[in-house]
Design brief:
The complex is a heterodimer of chains A (399) and B (259).
Chain A lengths: L11 E2 L2 E5 L5 H15 L2 H15 L5 E3 L1 H5 L4 E7 L9 H14 L4 E6 L3 H13 L2 E7 H6 L1 H9 L3 E5 L6 H15 L3 E3 L10 H24 L5 E6 L3 H7 L9 E9 L10 H4 L1 E5 L1 E6 L24 H9 L2 E7 H15 L5 H16 L4 E7 L7 H7 L5
Parallel strand pairs in A: 4-14, 5-6, 5-8, 6-7, 9-10, 9-14, 10-13
Antiparallel strand pairs in A: 1-2, 2-12, 3-4, 11-12
Helix pairs in contact in A: 2-4, 4-5, 4-9, 5-7, 9-10, 13-14
Chain B lengths: L2 H12 L4 E6 L5 H13 L4 E5 L10 H12 L4 H14 L4 E4 L2 H7 L1 H11 L3 E3 L9 H9 L3 E3 L1 E2 L5 H10 L4 E4 L13 H13 L4 E4 L5 H10 L2 E4 L1 H23 L4
Parallel strand pairs in B: 1-2, 1-9, 2-3, 3-4, 4-5, 6-7, 7-8, 8-9
Helix pairs in contact in B: 2-4, 2-11, 6-7
Classes of the chains: A alpha/beta (399), B alpha/beta (259).
């Protein structure tokens, strides 16, 4: 009998995952793995996290049916899982509170994090303030400019933000710099990695902390509609919000899973971040997974209008789900995403993050392949406040 | 026996000790890196370590990052590596190891990479982001082509990991001197002595110390308790500041720390 897909844990997801990191980090990964396994088995840890989710994060997040938005695409029902309503404005806080509790358990007083859009950095800075930890956030210099408001938020929360000036100066290079910091400070520091990528145990642990999204959604959809949705969809950069909502549905074969990647200027151009659609397997940031690389194994620079999806790698579990055929992945261009951002804003009064807008744009693609009356559940992973400068310029709204 | 191991044991016995010199392939150009490596061999390096430029070098400090990035910007391709090895091999007999992050090797094909490495005359590979636990393809290929495998151990490594890493290594074990990335350190950690003594007592392979070594005094000190001192950043920094001449001077200066 095949084991359940949802019960798969690292280090390996099929041929993906692993721990491709320098030996100096192995002891810290072992410590984290052991601490996490002990915490997972400890009802007191679960209770503490549940209480934080309830009284600080604002869980459970609600589901909103987007009727006017759906009507634009024909005979579909679209449901939004409102992770944008969490404290700090995105799903990222789910993982951060879990890992911050683990840092406390390990006696580590300092956390470091990488951030692209700044949402994970803001969530990390928030947890650091809440738990009284020192916090350093690495952010590509390009991203500090396009997400300047989030930089200010992190600083106001008391975190130090380091603008990374190496390589492509985006998320990939922020992760490199965080890894370098971690190698040097591993005794005192926990690396609070913000997505389901990286070496084991991160892909499994981060997924588990985000699986609350899918678990809540599954029950909420059953209550709302009396059945499971036909499609569960999310945007995919590193893949944390997508895995979070997919996970509860992995063993429901009647539920199709769709991940929407950033196709930038288009997947037929070099300017995209569609790792699963266009990449090949390789090793980046500690795990074997699909990635964008040239014929020499050099990582290629990705491109997306959305800083949070601008990453040439992806979590290993997504690579596994792709190869299994359990999840499908499709690219959404910058202009398609921006159109969806505007459409949700004007039809529903909800301004989504540009990352999230990629999943919303996916509805148009789904409308072409789904039977009439289908139910689509979308992870509304973040709110768009942080993107107002980009959107203002894009739509010509700034005077 | 591995030629590298043999050299390390001989140099230890004679009281000379060993200086391992790192230089990036293709920095600043393919031709210039051949000249640089030959000069390092002729002026006191006992063993050469050719670094493969890589887009995401997480174990490297800013000096080596900038040099390897320049190599890539100047058009370095992986196939050039084998030409560089041949070019050096034609002029000096100094044993030669390649230092490479894993993805370029994986993309090239681990078996193919090992074969081309062997044919070009190199002795093996140092793999900073590949631990033996994940290295089955490379373990097979290195056996097939009779190549050395240098894995890292660190002050944070448990005794059991030191044993398994030493068992998987061939040539020597790379002891990381301190918890940190490549770059110069004014003081070498006491941690270096401690990790070396654990490698010596728990395993059978020789061990060289790398990360942070930049003076003749440090080369001498490290050779008093380990089987060799690995220097990278100090050479690259000298070259960046004063070209070939400065590199030769730095090599001679550091080699003066040998017995």
């Amino acid at each position: 009998m095949n084991p359940k897909l949802s019960e798969t844990v690292g280090p390996y997801f099929g041929e993906f995952g692993g721990r491709f990191v320098p030996e100096p980090l192995i002891a810290a990964l072992d410590e984290l793995d052991a601490t996490y396994l002990a915490a997972k088995a400890d009802p007191a840890f679960r209770a503490e996290l549940d209480e934080l989710n309830k009284s600080y994060v604002g869980r459970p997040s609600i589901i909103t049916e987007a009727k006017k938005f759906a009507a634009e695409f024909g005979d579909l029902r679209v449901f939004l899982k409102r992770e944008d309503l969490n404290h700090t404005g995105s799903h990222k806080i789910n993982n951060v509170m879990g890992q911050a509790l683990l840092a406390k358990r390990m006696g580590k007083k300092r956390i470091i994090a990488e951030t692209g859009a700044g949402q994970h950095g803001v969530a990390s800075a928030t947890a650091a303030a809440y738990f009284g930890l020192e916090c350093v956030v690495y952010m590509g210099e390009v991203d500090t400019q396009r997400q300047a408001l989030n930089v200010a938020r992190m600083k106001l929360l008391g975190a130090e933000v380091v603008a990374v000036t190496t390589g492509s100066r985006t998320l990939k290079d922020a992760i490199n710099e965080a890894l370098r910091d971690w190698v040097a400070n591993v005794d005192t520091t926990h690396y609070l990695l913000g997505t389901v990528a990286g070496p084991h145990p991160f892909p499994t642990m981060v997924r588990d902390f985000h699986s609350v999204i899918g678990n809540e959604s599954r029950a909420q959809m059953l209550e709302l509609t009396g059945r499971l949705p036909d499609v569960v969809a999310a945007c995919v950069g590193g893949g944390s919000n997508a895995i979070g909502i997919f996970h509860a549905f992995l063993d429901d074969p009647e539920v199709a899973l769709w991940g929407f990647e950033a196709a930038g200027d288009g997947i037929d151009t070099p300017m995209h971040a569609a790792t699963l659609s266009m990449g090949v397997p390789g090793v980046l940031h500690g795990a074997r997974s699909y990635m964008l690389q040239d014929e020499d194994g050099q990582t290629m620079e990705s491109h997306s209008i959305s800083a949070g999806l601008d990453y040439p790698g992806v979590g290993p579990e997504h690579s596994w789900l792709k190869d299994l055929g359990r999840a499908k992945y499709h690219g959404i261009t910058d202009s398609q995403a921006m159109a969806a951002m505007r459409l949700l804003s004007t039809t529903e009064g909800i301004i989504p993050a540009i990352e999230t807008a990629h999943a919303l744009a996916g509805v148009e693609h789904l409308a072409n392949v789904l039977p009439a009356g289908s139910h689509v559940l979308i992870n509304l992973s973040g709110r768009g406040d942080k993107d107002m400068e980009t959107a203002g310029r894009y739509f010509g709204l700034l005077s | 026996m591995s030629a590298v191991k043999e050299l390390l044991l001989e140099n230890k016995q004679s009281g000379r000790g060993t200086l391992v010199g790192y230089f990036p392939a293709g920095y600043p150009t393919v031709e210039a890196s051949v000249e640089a490596l030959v000069a390092m061999a002729e002026n006191g390096c006992d063993l050469l370590e050719i670094g493969v430029p890589y887009s995401d070098p997480v174990m490297d400090g800013v000096v080596i990052q900038e040099a390897t990035l320049m190599a890539l910007e100047n058009g370095f391709k992986l196939k050039d590596l084998f030409e560089i090895i041949r070019g050096v091999r034609e002029r000096v007999e100094t044993p030669l190891l390649v230092m490479s992050y894993f993805n370029p090797i994986l993309r090239y094909g681990v078996d193919e990479f090992a074969k081309d490495l062997k044919n070009s005359g190199a002795q093996g590979i140092i793999t900073p982001d590949l631990i033996p636990d994940e290295a089955s393809l490379w373990l097979d290929a290195s056996e097939k082509y009779d190549l050395d495998r240098v894995f890292l151990v660190a002050p944070s490594s448990s005794d059991s990991r030191i044993v398994s890493t030493s068992d998987a290594s061939r040539g020597f074990v790379y002891s990381v001197s301190t918890m940190g990335i490549t770059g110069e350190r004014a003081k070498l950690d006491e941690l270096a002595r401690s990790v070396v003594s654990r490698v010596k007592s728990l395993g059978t392979e020789p061990t060289c110390v790398g990360v942070g070594i930049s003076t003749a005094q440090q080369v001498r000190e490290v050779n008093s308790y380990a089987d060799g001192a690995i220097v990278g950043t100090a050479f690259v920094k000298a070259y960046a500041a004063g070209g070939q001449e400065a590199l030769i001077a730095k090599t001679q200066e550091l080699a003066s720390g040998l017995g």
